[in-house]
Design a protein that fits this description.
429 residues; Aldehyde Dehydrogenase, Chain A, domain 1; 2 domains; seven-stranded mixed β-sheet
Length: 429
């Protein structure tokens, strides 16, 4: 059985046997979005972002501040321009050479399989596709319903005026559907896959493999955001600078956002040996920042499995004389210190491994294409460029200053996703 939460512009939880009517009605509504100018779409989403400030329910959603920032008019224009080179391609044929014209046509129906680690992930995925004027079906986890549906309801109420014409967010809403069905519903997965012109797949290895291998249209574009790992580095010059406390605070903010469940969340921090602080002293500095930030951002209740992982990790480090630990009285945060230069299996929930290395270059051998984001605190621009060139060559997708590791941006996972959500077509006279 399939639960439809949004269909044909109506927000109603309804059980349906298959996707036939949902897919049919979405195609009937395609004219509602294809003729909306791209700048009008951007204005609608900009207004949606601003509503996070005034709407208390939306403001309380975890990660809403990241989404609101991302939805700003300038950010969306910059993203489209980076992805497609020229924002006008979405609306019209643009002359690129004498008597040669290019336009970006939508792929068609985009099916989204959304992971549950980041509450607002479905909205990030959806907006990118809508900006390319695609139709959309969003398959979300049950736990994401209370995040996604209120945001789309707010979109439904938005009205704007652009070039003396009125446009409604409700027309956008009618061009998409939000559904849930169990992961093992093979029939629903196959039907969704067979009707998709593009598949946007977010999730772990098993989920990715499952969806990727479903029967699909010959021309279907698979855009995959699979499991990733992130960490951070501090070089000795930064550790010896007056900026250290502020940067440690920013690193802690990256750690507490989404309780480290995002692919961009740091799991390990590496610190280059220096003349000012050893690793135990750094742990004390981090402890101070955790205590300060936890007061402002208290930890949400965690499930039994997460609590068990933290308790087990704490027990291991307390009993091992070769390891050190700093911890809160409750399970609010945990700092684990060891000498192994490696990428540790994530414990998550504000649990960070910290390590001392002779040089940040000692980390390079650890890099694979599994690494998504590396938070960097490196004083010298030249040293930054050399280090980032080496690690991105080996697989890292992003080298980002602390405090913004979890900011969603383009490119992501090494891809300019919007460029894959359109078909570039050409006129030559």
């Amino acid at each position: 059985m399939i639960t439809s939460y949004l269909h044909n512009g109506i927000f109603q939880a309804k059980k349906v046997r298959d996707l036939n009517s949902i897919i049919s009605d979405i195609h009937k509504n395609k004219g509602l979005i294809v003729n909306v100018p791209i700048l009008a779409l951007i204005e609608i989403f900009d207004k949606l972002g601003k509503s996070f400030i005034t709407n208390e329910k939306l403001r309380s959603i975890e990660g809403s501040n990241f989404l609101a920032l991302w939805l700003k008019r300038k950010n969306l224009i910059d993203m489209i321009s980076l992805n497609l080179n020229n924002i006008r391609y979405i609306d019209e044929f643009v002359e690129i050479k004498e008597n040669q014209y290019i336009k970006a046509q939508p792929r068609g129906l985009v099916a989204h399989w959304i992971a549950g680690n980041v509450p607002t992930l479905g909205i990030f995925s959806l907006v990118q596709s809508i900006l390319c004027k695609n139709l959309n079906i969003l398959r979300i986890p049950e736990k994401s319903v209370d995040t996604v549906i209120p945001i789309l309801k707010e979109l439904n109420n938005i009205k704007i005026e652009h070039d003396n014409k009125k446009y409604n967010g409700s027309d956008i809403v009618k061009s998409l559907s939000v559904i849930y069905y169990p992961r093992d519903n093979t029939k629903a997965n196959e039907m969704l896959s067979k009707n998709a012109d593009a598949k946007l797949i977010w999730g772990g290895k098993e989920a990715i493999e499952l969806i990727k291998n479903l029967p699909a249209k010959e021309h279907c574009e698979d855009i995959i955001f699979g499991p990733k790992y992130s960490f951070g580095v501090f070089d000795r010059e930064f550790l010896e600078s007056e900026d250290l406390a502020k940067e440690l605070s920013r690193a802690v903010m990256d750690i507490i956002v989404f309780d480290q469940s995002a692919c961009s969340s740091p799991q390990v921090l590496f610190f280059e040996k220096n003349d000012k602080y050893d690793i135990r002293q750094i742990a004390e500095l981090l402890k101070k920042e955790f205590n300060a930030i936890t007061k402002r951002y208290p930890k949400n209740n965690q499930d039994y499995n997460t609590a068990a992982r933290i308790i087990n990790a704490r027990g291991e480090y307390l009993l091992d004389e070769n390891k050190d630990i700093a911890l809160a009285k409750a399970l609010d945060w945990t700092i684990l210190v060891n000498k192994d230069v490696c990428l540790e299996e994530p414990v998550q929930s504000r649990t960070i491994f910290i390590k001392e290395v002779g040089s940040i270059n000692d980390i390079i051998s650890l890099i694979t294409k599994r690494i998504q984001t590396v938070g960097i605190a490196i004083k010298s621009l030249e040293k930054t460029k050399v280090f980032c060139s080496r690690i991105t060559y080996r697989g890292v997708a992003r080298c980002i200053k602390f405090g913004s590791m979890n900011n969603y941006e383009s490119p992501w996972d090494g891809m300019l996703a919007l460029s894959r959500l359109v078909r570039f077509v050409k006129i030559k006279r």
